[in-house]
Amino acid sequence: MSFAADFPKDSAFNKAKARYFATPTDAVVSALFAAFAVWILWSLANWALLHAVFGANQRDACMATEGACWSVVSTRWRIVLFGLYPFEEQWRSAIACVVMVVVAALSCVPWFWSARRLPPLWIAGFAIFYVLMRGGWFGLREVTEQNWGGLSLTIFIFAAVSLLGMPLAIVFALLRRSDLPWIARTMALVIDVIRSLPLLSIMFTFAIVMPFVLPDWAIGDKLYRVIVGYALFFACYQAEIIRGGMQALPAGQEEAAKALGLTYWHRIGYIVLPQAFRNALPPTINQFVITFKETSLVTIIGFFDVMASGRAASGNADWNFATIEMYVFVALIFFVFVFTLSRYGAYLERRLGVGRR
């Protein structure tokens, strides 16, 4: 009797054997790959954990070790999270970030999934975030946008783009489906033109070119001009995603709603949009993931976001040998946010049965 016979046919051992060791060739390939994976994991653990330096201000110890120098993170983490924000006021930036994270977490609760609850939640959370960051009210010291930076600036840009871009995307999608040809074609032209341009060129246009063509009273701060341009870019892509979700609906549903005497806005609000967002859930989650990651592009036009802050934290003479560790830390920050959002999107797909027939 073989050793495998001692296990049930549906056991993990027999499943692994059938999948990876079914033939001698499969067994050799699986063994080589497993050995390579073990070597990679051991080398990574040896560098990142076993021979690493973790304590703050341990530059000399870092120079003497072959492992990772996490001391640069322990020493300079405030720059990554808060950028140029005044040291004594960084508690405000930290609370502001926590507020937006809590808002995002509450958005995952089904009770908030309505047009009467979700927008007020985000507007209130964003208002609290802005008041804490900007100050000037309630006895808080004023801190201008030029001193914002790090993770808090990244979250601010992402939240502002989402708040402006999503309603604009819904409007664009509805105009794109208008029964009036001149409205639908004009909107299609606008969407196609903006989608054909790189995001970086749009950011440069709103940051550098717009002040030359706008009146003085409409120029505003460069940060807000960039956010408006980014929101317009987001809205054009998201509008096509929403329109695709609308086109997936059976035509008979809207015709039945018309036969029942429902008005246009009742048909859109209660029948079309809820199902369109359900159909468009996977690409919508993907669009939010891309939007969060592409906030790092603002470093090119002079903003001190989390990526630029990480580069600055390890860019001085004392820590310029530890750039890899700092970039790993920044990558971990992005990974936590993006992976959490992706897993929540997968959970929603399972919960709502997206893609099932």
UniProtKB/TrEMBL annotation:
Membrane topology, as annotated: Multi-pass membrane protein
Keywords for this protein: Cell membrane, Membrane, Transmembrane, Transmembrane helix, Transport
Keyword Membrane applies: yes
Position of the signal peptide: none
InterPro entries associated with the record: AA_ABC_transptr_permease_3TM (IPR010065), ArtM/GltK/GlnP/TcyL/YhdX-like (IPR043429), MetI-like (IPR000515), MetI-like_sf (IPR035906)
TM stretches of this protein: 20-42, 91-113, 120-140, 152-175, 196-214, 326-347
Domain ABC transmembrane type-1: 151-340
Domain of life: Bacteria
SUPFAM superfamilies documented for this protein: MetI-like
Primary localization class, coarse: membrane
Localization of this protein: Cell inner membrane; Cell membrane
Pfam families (alphabetical): BPD_transp_1 (PF00528)
Xref: PANTHER family: INNER MEMBRANE AMINO-ACID ABC TRANSPORTER PERMEASE PROTEIN YHDY, MEMBRANE COMPONENT OF AMINO ACID ABC TRANSPORTER
UniProt-listed NCBIfam families: HEQRo_perm_3TM (TIGR01726)
Protein family membership: Belongs to the binding-protein-dependent transport system permease family. HisMQ subfamily.
Name by which UniProt lists this protein: Amino acid ABC transporter permease
